[in-house]
Amino acid sequence: MSDILGWRGLFGILGPSTNTVVQPEFDDMRPDGVTNHYSRILTPNADAVSNESFMNATLVIANNVLEAVDSVMTCSPSYLVMGMSAITFYGGSKGADDFQRQVEKRSNLSVSIGSHATASALKMFSGVKRIGFVSPYFPAANEQVRHYFEEMGFDVITDICLECPSWTQIAQVPKNIIHQKMHEINDKGVDALVQVGTNLPMAHLVEEFEAEFKKPVIAINTATYWHALRNNNINDQLEGFGSLMSQY
To answer: N or C: lower Cβ tally within 10 Å for the chain?
Structure first.
């Protein structure tokens, strides 16, 4: 018998305990018959005041992922969705594959991760080659994101890191700052604009930005949840989150 509320899918969501954006954004994109079950990856709210401290803090999160997997498996989910993006880019495409295999081996379930989901989303749009991205990260992490996208065949024309001073302050970046940074990226002549960093509130801004910039805008939470839905043959087209979710 199927779960009464999650008769199409029970998604186990893995996200940092400091993250306040993934859970509400994923819930806003949840179609009827799918339920989201958030498992918090223990994450001290460390100040990320340098390249080194940022990278070290993200590796702490990586080390705690499997405990969150074990926790969410107790509700018998049908699929896993990774709600933390930085560590899914580390080590390029091989690093992403290795991380995905680690989670899938532990859970015996498939998982959507931010890096591969965003690359898949970009490939839905014909002619997209030159991209730019904005992140809440520090430069060392942006280098990892750039390396991943270049390995996946994209030309990264520009990138911006907001250098947010703590994990929780990522969720406090106002819309006008995000808009300003997207403008700066667009001015470089890119084919598509990308946002990474799952605690940066972006899903509800994509539709407005696409109307303004006249090109694809990919928010990582939207891409990851879209990827999870489509991998489960759930093809509902949802309005309000940009062309990726409404057309593909």
So the answer is: N
CA distance 92 to 182: 24
User: Which CATH number goes with the domain that contains 131?
Assistant: 3.40.50.12500
pTM given for the model: 0.96
CA–chain centroid gap for 182, Å, is: 17
Total domains, the chain = 2
Angle between the N-to-C axes of helices 139-151 and 92-107, in degrees from 0 to 180, rounded to the nearest 10:
90
Neighbouring CB atoms inside 10 A of 187's CB total: 10
* Domain annotation covers residue 2: no
Cα–Cα distance, 62 to 236 (Å, whole number): 32
- What is the CA 96 to chain-centroid distance, rounded? 13
pLDDT tens digits for 61-115? 888 999 999 999 999 999 999 999 999 999 999 999 999 999 999 999 999 999 9
